[in-house]
Amino acid sequence: MARITRIILYPIKSLDGISVGEARVSAQGALENDRRYAIVDAEGRFVNGKRLADVHRLRARYADGSGSRVTLHAGREERSFRLDAEREALAAWLGAFFGFPVYVRDDPDSGFPDDKEAFGPTIISTATLALVAGWFPARSEDQMRMRFRANLEIGEVPAFWEDRLYGEPGTTVRFTVGAVRFEGTNPCQRCVVPTRDPLTGTEDRGFQKTLAARRAETLPAWATRSRFNHFYRLAVNTRISPSEAGKPIGVGDPVDITGPSKKG
User: Do residues 49 and 98 make contact, with C-beta atoms less than 8 angstroms apart?
Assistant: First the structure.
């Protein structure tokens, strides 16, 4: 049976995540404390890995899954901050690192997702990460985990099992994780971030081309090919109704497809 084997929250958008045993659904259908905080510039634009490879040189450690206290270090510099009371000091430290003024925003209900239509947790299987790692010499499963930054990882299933969780364009697939009802929407279109070493920001030349080519070659029979206008896609985007707010998702929870595709 498909089960959740790992839950990763990313309290500060674009920085390191933290593995937790349980997470709850937020008021707007995200995961509580996932991408709750975001770094922005003076124009309000995200300061993230899509724009700046320097983001990869920042390491973040959290005191617990709430993300209320973070320790950042870059090179030999290290400092801890309380996110509920020291965001101005955090912004000043980050601004010195990036070389321009930044601010730290907080949205406890929705967070700051990339996909504004399907901002539930992203899902991938452990077998997928292991297989994809094998496509790139000297790249480990854990490094692929850091590159693709999915929230929920499914075990006890074959590679690309998650491709069952979306259907034809304009439809969704209904499934549950434990007691939480989900809709799978689409295979996740990837950005430049997975092409870089997650610790240094160094670009792996040919990464995107190789991933797309191997994805096309290995697309399983259960995947909806019409959802691939290109094959640089991995993991699945989801939606959770706000009516599920407060419900827990835990490691070990079963993942069950409960209904056929329906109009999104």
Answer: no
The CATH code that applies to domain 3-30+113-263 is: 2.40.33
The span from the CA of 84 to the CA of 232, in Å, is 37
Q: Convert 211-225 to b/e letters by CB count within 10 Å (16 or more is b).
A: bbebbeeebeeebbe
Q: What are the residue ranges of CATH 2.40.33 in the chain?
A: 3-30+113-263
pLDDT in tens, 180-234: 999 999 999 999 999 999 999 999 999 999 999 999 999 999 999 999 999 999 9
Q: Which residues of 43-57 are buried (b: 16+ CB within 10 A; e: fewer)?
A: eeebbbbeeebebbe
> Residue 260, class by beta-carbon neighbours within 10 Å (0-12 exposed, 13-18 middle, 19+ buried)?
exposed
Residue 101 near residue 95 (C-beta atoms within 8 A)? yes
Separation in Å, CA 92 to CA 10, 13, 46, 79, 86: 21, 17, 16, 12, 10
Stated pTM of the model: 0.95
Q: Residue 189 is inside which H or E element, if any?
A: strand 180-189
